[in-house]
Amino acid sequence: MRFIEWLGEQARRGRMLLSHRDRFDQEMEEEMRLHRDLRARELLENGAQVNDASYAAQRKFGNTLRLREEIHQAWGWTWIDSLARDFKYAGRRLRKSPGFTAVAVLTLALGIGANTAIFTLVQQVIFNPLPVAHASELYSLGDNKNGCCSGGLQDDFSVYSYPLYQYLRDHTPEFSDLAGFMAGSVSLGVRREGDHAAAQFFRGEFVSGNYFSVLGVDARAGRMLAPTDDQRSAPPVAVMSYRAWQNRFASDPNLIGRTLIIRGIPVTLAGITPPEFFGDTLASDPPDFWMPISMEALLNPGQASLLEHWNEYWLYAIGRLRPGTDPRAVQAHATTELQQWLKENYVGDRYSSDPYIAARYTKDIPKQYINVIPAPGGVISTRDNNRSALRLLMVISALVLLIACANIANLLLARSTASRYQIAVRLALGASRSHILRQTMTEGVLLALLGGAAGLGVSVATSRGILSLAFRHADYVPISTTPSLPVLGSLLLFL
Amino acid sequence: MSRDEIPPGTLYMLILRVLARGGELHGYEIAKSIELLSQDVLQVEEGSLYPALQRMLIKGWVKAEWGVTAENRRARYYRLTAAGRKQLQEEISQFERVMGAVNRVIQTA
Fold it and tell me: What angle do CA A184, A185, A187 make, to 5 degrees?
């Protein structure tokens, strides 16, 4: 019962604070004025003089200001009043010394801005998963350190030929499905059918037919690629990025299902990817088109084609692991399968019947292996290159903030030494120690808030600057420079 | 014309009592009512009525609504709630208990 009453009181307090706080004092004033006026009239009617009556009524009523304080205290607003007063006072003090304020705010803005910028980038580059469904189930075959497009044994395998990818896909049932896709991208000349203007330049990537279903990406419009598209006999199709659709084709909805001429070959546009999807790799200039791997032979005719070359390694492989599967067991199995495939291809008569070469491969093949590693962020290679740089930047910016804080602490200290007499006077006038401390702290908080606000501006500019430095020749980088909510939250925490 | 200040702690009871009798009253009417009912002996310290009323609002014993007086001036009218009515009973019985005890002490001493 007691508790329920208390709850009711708090609810009434809160409601009053939220809905009536602004006109509360005015209403209180009006109510009390009515009282005094009525009292004065009564005194008048009893024969008092006009001036005396209103004065007497006022005296009889008591000190309105004190009553208002008492009422505020009853509602529990004293802290709001004193906070407002402290802030007003702090603002006045800061305005009085514009030099100090400017230096302090600028120092904080730089320190906080740099940190926010770095954390914004770090969060996106290192921590954010791909914008796909259940990114944590994605595992990569190999850690992709080798880069693209090599032949021969890699020891630590991470790029695969099309036949090897197919073999691994069909022999690792631990993956519900395994997608293969080009390491890197190709440039494409693309124009609309019937349009005789010069073809425009785009970037394209060859991906396996199951690529979009493995990543769990649904079409924004039209449809994504399907395994049936990834066959030599299938009619050529492509999927376009939302960005290219929007920027280069004015989001033309009639384009879907129509024919585009890509490298002189008519290709049907199957659909548009969702706006947030930028591909499998966080890198500058992500692909504008995704096409089935089987089309590679069509666009690179004759000897240029990599498709059928069993020892040309140009594909990454990322798959969705079945729930409850142990990645280490998968790794062991994938390694066994890899060595099996290598033995069949390198040692058999298909590759070389030269006994010397066969003996060398027989010796080296048992050393070949595949690392199966989590790939919630897609292909790591690009990230890895920038990771250590970002980490260094993070440390540096943290140091900058530390120095900034030390500087400001110094400034504040000097300032409080200068205002010793003032504080002494205030203490003598009856201010409590806690009140003076609170005022000083309020001043610090106000400074921090100002610095933080200015720092936000600095951070956006800084992260843009870092991005344009890191990707010097990029037209577009799929990284947002607007600080995200978690970053802002931790920024506030810092303050 | 000497008047007595009301005993501390009884202001709530007096306000509740006046409201229980009179329906909706504004602050000045409450003060007047207490004076009239006590035949001018008890005098409310006028300003302190308002903090008391606000505290009673917080406790939910009274409700307040803006209205217009007979002379067409805006005034806040107070009305008793069910919780206020209950509180009045409690305050009265507590007061009588204390007064009875004090009386007994005075008479036997």
Answer: 150
Length of chain A: 495
Reduced DSSP (H G I as helix, E B as strand, rest coil) percent helix, strand, coil of chain B, to 5: 60, 20, 25
Query: Distance (Å, rounded) from C-alpha A27 to C-alpha B75?
Result: 9
Antiparallel, parallel or unpaired: β A200-207 and A186-192: antiparallel
Element at A444 (helix H, strand E): helix A433-470
Q: What is the rounded CA–CA span in Å between residue A325 and residue A423?
A: 68
| DSSP state letter for A160 | B
Structural domain count of chain B: 1
Does residue B27 belong to the interface with chain A, where contact is any CB pair within 8 Å?
A: yes
- Find where tokens 């009323």 sit: B53
Spatial CA neighbour of A220 closest among A202, A241, A237, A206:
A241
Distance from CA of A9 to the nearest CA of B (A): 6
d(CA A84, CA A266): 70
Distance from the B85 Cα atom to the nearest Cα atom in chain A, whole angstroms: 15
Range of the domain at B82: 4-108
Q: Is B69 on the interface with A (CB under 8 A)?
A: yes
Question: CA-to-CA distance for A321 and B57, rounded, in angstroms?
Answer: 63
Q: Does B3 touch chain A (CB under 8 A)?
A: no
**For every residue of A456-469, which 3-state class applies, written as one string?**
HHHHHHHHHHHHHH
Give contacts of B33 with chain A, Cβ < 8 Å: none
Low-confidence stretches of chain B (pLDDT beneath 50): 1
A484 versus A399: which is more confidently predicted? A399
> What is each CA distance from A395 to A290, A402, A493, B108, in whole angstroms?
38, 11, 18, 85
Write the CB contacts of A144 (distance below 8 Å, at least 6 apart in sequence): A158, A159, A183, A316, A379, A380, A381
From A141, A147, A143, A145, select the one nearest A164 (Cα to Cα).
A141
Calculate how close chain A gets to B75, using CA atoms only, in Å.
6
Bigger pLDDT: A360 vs A489: A360
> How much is the ipTM here?
0.84
What is the structure's pLDDT at A382?
Answer: 45
Confidence of residue A239 (pLDDT cuts 50, 70, 90): very high
Q: Which tokens sit at A185?
A: 């991208």
Q: What is the pLDDT of residues A391-437, one digit of tens each?
A: 787 888 888 888 888 888 888 888 888 888 888 888 888 888 888 88
Strand partners, B63: B79
CATH classification of the domain holding B66: 1.10.10.10
Q: How many whole angstroms separate alpha carbon A156 and alpha carbon A138?
A: 19
Are B47 and A5 a contacting pair at CB < 8 A?
A: no
**Cβ of B45 under 8 Å from any chain A Cβ?**
yes
Residue bearing tokens 């999927």: A239
CB atoms within 10 A of CB A286: 21
Chain A residues closer than 8 Å to B59 by CB: 5, 9
Rounded to two decimals, the pTM is 0.59
Q: Which residues contact A446 (CB under 8 A, 6 or more apart)?
A: A87, A90, A91, A94
Contact B47 A74 (CB under 8 A): no
